[in-house]
Design a protein that fits this description.
With 302 residues, the chain is an alpha+beta fold. It is built from ten helices and 16 strands. The radius of gyration is 18 Å and the shape is globular.
């Protein structure tokens, strides 16, 4: 069955009373005189086929059963990485805002719980422009919420969503994603700064191309002395099948084959360099590490 936009949006809206996740994450990494943590934007509620549809169902079923993952409905957390080094307060992505999912859009409250207001954020770095990552850019008056921040996005990602043909070519289920991204990007078009793969975006923060989930998806390496972490956005989109079977194409990726390549590259690097991982949709605040597990991997939370 092909997942239509109608079914996706109906599922997202079907549980308006579902509780959001704790507003502050439990894990924090110390980077010398800097800190790297996450703040919660709530959670999503998705039909499981949004991810699982293209996978071999006979092999998938026992994996889901073993890991206790529903084959009907998924409720992934939305964790925004927050890096503070005494000079810069950097937020990675901006969350869903009030108009995408009733269980998401809690970033302002989460920042408040951390003792921060939107104007305290000095930089916003985008992994990509899907709704749960960029629709929170605007406040209730359609003005940039993080108005004091410098907004930065990978050049390839910007060009893709800015292209007027994207809304016609992305597919019916994601057409609203394209229109919503473009509207929010228009609010920062005169001030956005671009970067490319390998660029040191800010001191200690470098861009890592990880296309597939979207055409210009970026991960970020954060390094301070001997401490390092990879902020992977949605390139590693869950804590179960993405780790156990990274070679399986995910229905959430716009280019499934390229998504596999990026996912395996990041997982290999996380293990080889023993880096911490921060994932937007990983559980319990989204901070952990990666271990080899047979032919696949295992996510271990902090």
């Amino acid at each position: 069955m092909t997942l239509s936009r109608r079914k996706l949006l109906q599922t997202v809206a079907a549980f308006p009373l579902a509780a959001t996740l704790p507003r502050m994450a439990k894990a924090e990494l110390s980077f010398g005189d800097a800190t790297l943590t996450t703040v919660s934007d709530g959670n999503l509620i998705l039909p499981a086929e949004f991810i699982f549809e293209p996978m071999p169902q006979a092999e998938l079923a026992p994996i889901l059963a073993e890991l206790g993952v529903s084959s009907e409905r998924l409720t992934p957390e939305c964790n925004l990485a927050l890096y503070r080094d005494g000079t810069n307060t950097v937020l990675f992505d901006v969350g869903s805002g009030p108009n995408f999912a009733p269980t998401a859009g809690t970033i302002v409250d989460s920042l408040d719980a951390a003792g921060l207001a939107p104007e305290d954020v000095t930089h916003v770095l985008f992994t990509h422009a899907h709704p749960d990552h960029i629709w929170g850019l605007l406040d209730d008056f359609d003005e940039p919420l993080f108005y004091a921040a410098t907004h930065m996005m990978g050049r390839a990602e910007w060009d893709y969503w800015w292209n007027p043909e994207t809304v016609n070519s992305i597919g019916e289920a994601r057409a609203a994603f394209a229109a919503g991204a473009k509207r929010r990007m228009e609010a920062i078009e005169d001030a956005v700064e671009f970067f490319d793969d390998g660029d040191e975006v800010l001191p200690g923060i470098s861009a890592v191309a990880s296309a597939g989930h979207t055409p210009g998806h970026m991960a970020f390496e954060v390094r301070n002395g001997s401490n390092s972490a990879l902020i992977v956005g949605d390139a590693i989109g869950n804590h179960h099948v993405a780790f156990r079977k990274p070679e399986w194409i995910s229905g959430s990726d716009q280019d499934g084959a390229l998504g596999v390549t990026s996912r395996q590259m990041l997982l290999d690097r996380l293990v080889a360099e023993q880096m911490a991982v921060i994932g937007f949709h990983l559980p319990n605040g989204g901070i952990g590490r990666v271990e080899r597990d047979g032919d696949g991997y295992r996510y271990v939370g902090v």
